[in-house]
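tl;dr need the bound structure. longer version: we got a ligand (s-citryldethia Coenzyme A) that a collaborator sent over and nobodys looked at where it sits. i said id run it. heres the input, straight from their email, havent touched it
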Amino acid sequence: MTGSSKYTVRNQDTGKEFQLESRPGTVGPDVVDIRNLFTGQGLFTYDPGFGSTAGCESKITYIDGDAGVLMYRGYPVEQLAGHSSFIEVAYLLLYGELPNKAQLAEFDRTIRMHTMLNESVLRFFDGFHYDAHPMAMVAGVVGSMAAFYHDTTNIADARHRDIFAHRIIAKIPTIAAAAYKHSLGQPFIYPRNDLNYCSNLLHMFYAVPAERYDVDPLAAEALDLLFILHADHEQNCSTSTVRLAGSSGANPYSAISAGIAALWGPAHGGANEAVLDMLEEIGDVKHIPKYLARAKDKNDSFRLMGFGHRVYKNYDPRASIIRETCHKVLTRMGGNQPLFELALRLEEIALKDEYFVEKKLYPNVDFYSGIIYRALGIPKSMFTVMFAIARTVGWCAHWREMITDPDGRIGRPRQLYTGATRRDYVAIEKRG
Ligand code: SDX
């Protein structure tokens, strides 16, 4: 954190100058405050993809992409992965501090007591074809929750904001499980209040009415770790979508549904599914050079899925932890060892290739996560849904921060217009 600095901008043609001032954060780059740039100087800034633009002030998550640092409310993700639980991390992200025993017990109980869905919501699934993509079903059903809570969600009321967050965090696993069961043609399995968050999810996924199902604690433990690592990630595409949608005062369930839609893209959360498709297509170590050549070929749209990141120009700290967890899960539970071996070799070869080294393309959170999901029996089509379940916590934390931000206003970016200048309408008879 440094003090603010003053910058002079000088038009070299006219000699006209104006001042800009920077603001420091507690850690990380300072920001140059350009809020009055247009009103004062008649200028916009230009930053497609917002690679150099801070759209808000936040206290939730900090990333240092060069150092490979990720912190939730100041706590390194490695420490949370080693000592915390997803429910405790959810409390931390929402409320800013680690809970004491009583607070954690109350939060955990609140979440467990809100996992059931209105029976009418379950009937929405009858309208989907059996092979509908689960992300489409989940986005649609989460959006429909705005229909149930349109007149009981006063976003100006702190208690209502709490209830919204508790409800959606509690219900998104139930919605995900319903989408999965619908795709199997199996009956929906109701949540159980005696099970913890991840055990309940696995139970709703894999139990059937015909027999007893006991959740494997190792599977629940691995899932809990994955959810901690996916819970939040600063102003990523889907979180920024939730903030922008929510900034108009839209129903928060609709804002979360918009976030799910944005996460689905293969450049974002959809990459975990695309990585498995890619590994299965590569098939064997001997084919790796051919696919690396395709990834480097500007005329080939193929990209090495699970590699590269807008912010991390070093190893994604989450990928390191997930890779180590792969070893444990596959060793204890079996599963796609050959696929994991192929992924390890692909990483090893790519990280020695000058294209990937020069462009600082490292494995990201999506490169290994699908291998664990598959070892837990989760089908590829559900991988991004798993990401959405965990990221719902981050989306809720950022939505709450945006709604209560004293500087908050509706998001409305401007543009560099390069279209047609003014011209008059031409009657069709006079057109060429
Ligand atoms: C997530 O933002 C977040 O925090 C996201 C996330 C989260 O937790 O919310 O971390 C989750 O979305 C992880 C990313 C998952 N996506 C993928 O794995 C898809 C593959 N990766 C790429 O599509 C890409 O790396 C992005 C989308 C992740 C980042 O894209 P950028 O920042 O816009 O970078 P870029 O496309 O400008 O790439 C820079 C250069 C380009 O080459 P040049 O035009 O400079 O010659 O690197 C090349 C790209 O062609 N490049 C790749 C590549 N990724 C970038 N070349 C081959 N394979 C790749 N994977």
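gonna send this back to them w/ a short note. The mean pLDDT is 95.
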